[in-house]
């Protein structure tokens, strides 16, 4: 299951996100970055292959703080087409 992780501190990188999800077997971690500046856009995605573990991660980590910011962890929704 792919999870959306929002309200990330701009200093967070993939390693920081991996540590935050320690104890859950992540198969993929991605921080979305601005294509021009390379800076984080403040959100990313993690993939946990076991759906039950992903649901537990959502419940346990949604609302937790990272560097003073309250994270939003939810199931990722498909990207909508832009016109």
Task: Describe the structure in your own words.
The chain is α+β, with helices and mostly antiparallel strands and 83 residues long. The strands form two sheets. Strands 2-3-1-6 form a four-stranded antiparallel β-sheet, covered by helices on one side. The mean pLDDT is 94. It has two helices and six strands, in the order βαββαβββ. β2 (26-33) and β3 (40-48) form a beta hairpin. Helix content is 22%, strand content 36%. It is globular and about 35 Å long. It has a domain at 2-6 and 14-62: RRM (RNA recognition motif) domain (Alpha-Beta Plaits, 2-Layer Sandwich), CATH 3.30.70.
Summarize the entry for a quick read.
This protein has 83 residues and is α+β, with helices and mostly antiparallel strands. It has helices spanning 14-20, 51-61, and strands at residues 2-6, 26-33, 40-48, 65-66, 69-70, 72-75. It starts with a strand and ends in an 8-residue tail after the last strand.
List key phrases describing it:
36% strand; 22% helix; alpha+beta; 2 helices; 83 residues; Alpha-Beta Plaits; four-stranded antiparallel beta sheet
Q: How much is the radius of gyration in Å?
A: 13 Å
Question: What structural class results from the helix and strand content?
Answer: alpha+beta
- Return the string of H and E elements: EHEEHEEE
- Strand order, sheet with most strands: 2-3-1-6
Identify the overall geometry. globular
| CATH hierarchy class name of one domain | Alpha Beta
Beta-strand level of the residues, as a percent range? Answer: 35-45%
The average pLDDT value, as a whole number, equals 94
Instruction: Give the distance, in angstroms, between the N- and C-terminal Cα atoms.
Output: 28 Å
- Helix tally equals 2
- The percent range for helix content is 10-25%
Give the full name of the CATH homologous superfamily of one domain: RRM (RNA recognition motif) domain
* Name of the CATH architecture of one domain: 2-Layer Sandwich
CATH topology of one domain: Alpha-Beta Plaits
* Sequence stretches where pLDDT stays below 50 over 5 or more residues: none
Q: How many β-strand runs?
A: 6
């Amino acid at each position: 299951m792919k999870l959306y992780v929002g309200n990330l501190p701009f200093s967070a990188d993939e390693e920081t996100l991996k540590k935050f999800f320690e104890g859950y077997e992540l198969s993929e971690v991605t921080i979305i970055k601005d294509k021009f500046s390379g800076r984080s856009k403040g959100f990313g995605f993690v993939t946990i292959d076991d759906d039950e573990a992903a649901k537990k991660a959502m419940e346990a980590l949604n609302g937790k703080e990272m560097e003073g910011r309250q994270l939003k962890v939810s199931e990722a929704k498909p990207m909508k087409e832009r016109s």
